[in-house]
Design goal:
Elements lengths: L1 H13 L17 E5 L2 H4 L12 H8 L16 H15 L3 E5 L2 H4 L10 H16 L3 E7 L5 H4 L9 H16 L5 E6 L1 H9 L14 H28 L2 E7 L2 E4 L4 H23 L7 H13 L12 H7 L6 E4 L3 E6 L12 H5 L1 E4 L16 H14 L5 E5 L12 H21 L3 E7 L18 E3 L8 E3 L1 H12 L7
Helix pairs in contact: 4-6, 8-10, 9-10, 15-16, 16-17
The chain binds 1-deoxynojirimycin.
C-alpha cells in the first residue's frame, strides 16, 4: 500500500497534479471569466429561416467520409432554438462573458451585403439582448470558419477580393450589433483556416495546396482582419467605443535539448505557427517573422520556384496591418518538444509549411491526455507561452479565448477536465504574478459538447454534455461545471484532491 501511495505521489508530481503547486492567489479584480462556442459547432438550424449554405454545410454533406463518425452540424446542440436555455446555464455558471461567433450566411445568405436576412439579425439580437439582460457580456467572433459557399465558388479566402468581402460583412455586423457588442474578435485561428482548410484539406473547403494556397490564405486572411479592424477603428469606435482584435492559436514548443540547434528549432516552430499570424499584427516591427521568410525562401529555391512561395506584404501593407489589434486573443491547448530536423527534404512537388519549417515535434506520452491524444495537459508550457507573448509582442493585454480538455462525450465525471482547468489557471496565475504578464480574461472551451469538425461527435470539450440522440438536446452539467463555477465565484482556485 505504502509503495502504491509513493508511486501515486511520483506520478502526481510528474503530471503536475501536486496540489501544493496550485497557485492560490486571487484573480485580479479586472480579470474576466467566460466560456466559448462557435456558430457551426453549436447552432444547428443549418437551413432554417433563410440561412444560406456555407462551406461546412457543403463539406459535411458532400464528404461525410471525411468526418470521423460521418455526422454533421445540421442540428448539433440546436442552440439556434435553445439560446434562452443556454443563457440560463451560462448565468448559473456565473460567467462574466460568453464568446460566440456569427454565422455569415445566416446574416448574408449569399455572402454579399445586398440582401440581409432579417431572421438572422433577429436571432443574434435576441441572443445578445438575453445575455445582457442576465449580466453577461457578449464577446463576438465575426468569422469562425463557416465561409459562405457562394464566396467559396469564387475562390473563397484565396480570392484577392476576400478582404473586401470580409470588410463588407464586418460593416453589417458593426451596424447591427455594435451598439451593444463592445468586444469583437475578427477571425478565429487563421492558422487552422490556412493549414487544415488549404494545405492538408482535412477541413472545409478541403483544398490541398500546401505552401502555396496555404500562404495565399495567410496573406489574404491577415489583410482581411486588418480591414475589419480599420473599419471599426475609423467608422464605429468613435461612437460605439468597443475593442477589437485577432484570435491566434499558439501551442508551446519546448527545445528537446540544450543545443543551439534545438533551441532555434523550437523558436522557429513558434514563429511558423504563432508568429506567422501574430507577428504582422502584434509585433512592433510588423511583417512575417524574418526566420519564416528566410526558411520559405530557401526551400522555394530548392524546389525550383523562381522566388519565394510566400506572398509578401508590401511596405505599405506592413504599416497598414501592424498594430491592428487592441489585445492578443489566444487559443491554447498543449505543448510539444521540438528538435531541429537535419534532413532537408529533397525536391518535392508538394511543399508545405511543415517542410519549410524543418522542425521535428513530438509529445511525452506520459503527459495526461483526453480523448484527443495530442491535447495533453502540460500547464508549464502555457505559462512559458504567455511569457513569450509578453516578450515578443510588447507586453500586450492577453485574453485567453480558448483553453480546454477533450473527453469522449459520455461521462459526466470529467476528472481530466477538472484537473486541466485548475492546472492551466494556476499556470496563468503564475504568469500574472510571477512573470508580470497582463492576462485579463479566460474562456473555457467549450460551453457545450458539440460538432468537433473532422472529429464529428467523437470528441467533447464541453463543460456540459449534450444528448445528441434526444431531439430536445438536453444539456447536463459535468463535474467541471461545479469546479469552474466555484473558481468564478471565489475568484480563486481550489487545490485538486
Ligand atoms: C480551436 C477551434 O477554434 C475550435 O473551433 C475547436 O473546436 C477547438 N480548437 C478544439 O479543437
Amino acid at each position: 500500500m505504502k509503495r502504491l501511495l509513493g508511486l501515486f505521489a511520483v506520478a502526481a508530481v510528474i503530471f503536475g497534479l501536486d496540489s501544493t503547486s496550485i497557485n492560490l492567489e486571487k484573480f485580479p479584480d479586472d480579470f474576466i471569466f467566460g466560456t466559448a462556442s462557435s456558430a457551426y459547432q453549436t447552432e444547428g438550424a443549418w437551413n432554417a429561416d433563410g440561412k444560406g449554405e456555407n462551406i461546412w454545410d457543403h463539406f459535411v454533406h458532400k464528404f461525410p467520409e471525411k468526418i470521423a463518425d460521418g455526422r454533421n452540424g445540421d442540428i448539433t446542440c440546436d442552440s439556434y432554438h435553445k439560446y434562452k436555455k443556454d443563457v440560463v446555464l451560462l448565468k448559473k455558471l456565473g460567467v462574466n462573458f460568453y464568446r460566440f461567433s456569427l454565422s455569415w450566411t445566416r446574416i448574408l445568405p449569399t455572402g454579399f451585403p445586398h440582401r440581409i436576412n432579417q431572421a438572422g439579425i433577429d436571432y443574434y439580437n435576441n441572443l445578445i439582448n438575453e445575455l445582457l439582460a442576465n449580466g453577461i457580456e457578449p464577446i463576438v467572433t465575426i468569422y469562425h470558419w463557416d465561409l459562405p459557399l457562394e464566396l467559396q465558388k469564387l475562390g473563397g479566402i484565396t480570392n484577392s477580393l476576400f478582404a473586401d468581402w470580409f470588410e463588407d460583412f464586418s460593416r453589417v455586423v458593426f451596424e447591427n450589433f455594435g451598439d451593444r457588442v463592445k468586444f469583437w474578435l475578427t477571425i478565429n485561428e487563421p492558422r487552422l483556416i490556412c493549414v487544415f482548410g488549404h494545405s492538408t484539406g482535412v477541413f472545409a473547403p478541403g483544398i490541398q495546396s500546401g505552401g502555396i494556397g496555404e500562404y495565399l490564405c495567410n496573406y489574404n486572411v491577415i489583410k482581411a482582419h486588418a480591414r475589419s479592424y480599420h473599419l471599426y477603428h475609423k467608422s464605429f469606435r468613435p461612437t460605439q467605443k468597443g475593442r477589437i482584435g485577432l484570435v491566434i492559436d499558439c501551442q508551446w514548443y519546448e527545445p528537446a535539448t540544450n543545443s543551439t540547434e534545438d533551441i532555434e528549432a523550437a523558436e522557429r516552430k513558434l514563429q511558423f505557427d504563432c508568429g506567422f499570424y501574430g507577428h504582422p499584427v502584434f509585433s512592433k516591427k510588423g511583417d512575417y517573422p524574418q526566420v519564416v521568410k528566410d526558411f520559405v525562401a530557401e526551400r522555394s529555391e530548392i524546389e525550383g520556384f523562381p522566388s519565394t512561395r510566400l506572398v509578401l506584404f508590401t511596405q505599405q501593407e506592413i504599416e497598414y496591418i501592424r498594430g491592428t489589434s487592441d489585445f492578443v486573443a489566444l487559443n491554447h491547448y498543449t505543448t510539444y518538444y521540438a528538435a531541429n530536423d537535419k534532413t532537408i527534404t529533397p525536391f518535392t512537388e508538394h511543399p508545405s509549411s511543415a517542410k519549410d519549417s524543418r522542425v521535428h515535434i513530438w509529445q511525452d506520452e506520459d503527459w495526461p491526455s483526453g480523448i484527443f491524444p495530442e491535447f495533453r495537459t502540460v500547464p508549464w508550457g502555457f505559462r512559458k507561452l504567455l511569457k513569450w507573448l509578453k516578450d515578443n509582442y510588447d507586453d500586450p493585454d492577453i485574453y485567453v479565448t480558448e483553453n480546454g480538455f477533450s473527453d469522449d462525450n459520455k461521462n459526466l465525471h470529467d476528472r481530466g477536465r477538472v484537473n486541466y482547468t485548475t492546472l492551466y489557471l494556476s499556470a496563468l496565475l503564475d504568469a500574472i504574478y510571477k512573470d508580470g504578464v497582463k492576462v485579463k480574461g479566460y474562456a473555457a472551451w467549450s460551453f457545450l459538447d458539440y460538432f468537433e469538425w473532422a472529429s464529428g461527435y467523437t470528441i467533447g470539450f464541453g463543460l456540459h454534455q449534450v444528448n445528441f440522440t434526444d431531439p430536445n438536446r438536453p444539456r447536463l452539467p459535468k463535474d467541471s461545471v461545479k469546479t469552474y463555477t466555484s473558481i468564478i465565484k471565489n475568484r480563486k482556485l481550489t487545490p485538486i484532491d
